[in-house]
């Protein structure tokens, strides 16, 4: 399923809303999550999962092609942990 | 550095502000976004949201695990797990976020 299919499904269920509205709604949800993570905040969606930011320490990496060492700075990376309900749903058929 | 936790309520509030719907309806729409994504994933389908990231379901085979406390061997049944790969855009925004 891609973004446009998700928008279509929600538009089909809500005939009183225009396609443009649904697009804006769906985009707002994802944009808000990115915005929160960019600030270093967590987003916890019970049953679905939680988005958070993890810190990776600076390290000396290696260019796999040339073998040269390169300094890799510390950085923040997004992380997602699946919620219990969704995890269980993946394993019940 | 104030670390907050956002919930469905904050997402609903953002939708409420972005579109002229009631708070109640905004909350229902947020729920329905999560519901459709969960349904697709439960079916084993991949969910690919451009400029956000990709959720994919991976099958793991059975293996022998160990209870770290007692050292007992325990069989771990085959299962499906969800992985999320953030988009380049999300990675970039998260990486730069705190350096501002």
Shape of chain B: elongated
Outline type of chain A: elongated
Give the termini separation of chain A: 20 Å
Largest sheet of chain A: 3 strands, antiparallel
Please state the average pLDDT score of chain A.
94
Question: What labels would you give this structure?
Answer:
heterodimer; A: 93 residues; alpha+beta; two-stranded antiparallel ribbon; 3 helices; 30% strand; B: 100 residues; 41% helix
Write up what this structure looks like.
Chain A: InterPro entries: Hist_DNA-bd, Histone-like_DNA-bd_CS, IHF-like_DNA-bd_dom_sf, IHF_beta. Chain A: One of its GO terms (cellular component) is cytosol. The complex is a heterodimer of chains A (93) and B (100). Chain A is an alpha+beta fold and 93 residues long. In chain A, 41% of the residues lie in helices and 30% in strands. Chain A is built from three helices and five strands, in the order H-H-E-E-E-E-E-H. Chain A has helices at residues 3-13, 19-38, 84-90; strands spanning 42-45, 49-56, 59-62, 69-72, 75-82. In chain A, the strands form two sheets. In chain A, strands 1-2-5 form a three-stranded antiparallel sheet. Chain A has a two-stranded antiparallel ribbon with strand order 3-4. In chain A, strand 1 and strand 2 form a beta hairpin. Chain A is elongated and about 60 Å long. The two termini of chain A are 20 Å apart. Chain B has 100 residues and is of the alpha+beta class. Chain B has helices spanning 8-18, 23-42, 88-97; strands at 5-6, 47-49, 53-60, 63-66, 73-76, 79-86. In chain B, the strands form two sheets. In chain B, strands 2-3-6 form a three-stranded antiparallel sheet. In chain B, strand 4 (63-66) and strand 5 (73-76) form a beta hairpin. The longest helix of chain B has 20 residues, at 23-42. The chains are: A alpha+beta (93), B alpha+beta (100). The interface between A and B is large, with 46 and 51 residues. Strand 1 (42-45) of chain A pairs parallel with strand 1 of chain B.
């Amino acid at each position: 399923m891609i973004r446009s299919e998700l928008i279509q499904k929600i538009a089909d269920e809500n005939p009183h809303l225009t396609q443009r509205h649904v697009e804006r709604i769906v985009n707002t949800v994802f944009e808000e999550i990115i915005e929160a993570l960019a600030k270093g905040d967590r987003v916890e969606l019970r049953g679905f999962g939680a988005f958070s930011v993890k810190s990776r320490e600076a390290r000396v990496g290696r260019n796999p092609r040339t073998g040269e060492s390169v300094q890799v700075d510390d950085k923040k990376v997004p992380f997602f942990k699946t919620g219990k309900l969704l995890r269980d749903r993946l394993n019940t058929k | 550095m104030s670390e907050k936790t956002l919930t469905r309520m904050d997402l609903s509030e953002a939708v409420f502000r972005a579109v002229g719907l009631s708070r109640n309806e905004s909350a229902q729409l947020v729920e329905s976004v999560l519901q459709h994504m969960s349904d697709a994933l439960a079916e084993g389908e991949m969910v690919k949201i451009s400029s956000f990231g990709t959720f994919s379901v991976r099958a793991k085979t059975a293996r022998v695990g160990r209870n770290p406390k007692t050292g007992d061997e325990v069989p771990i049944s085959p299962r499906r797990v969800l992985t999320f790969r953030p988009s380049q855009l999300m990675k970039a925004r998260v990486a730069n976020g705190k350096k501002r």
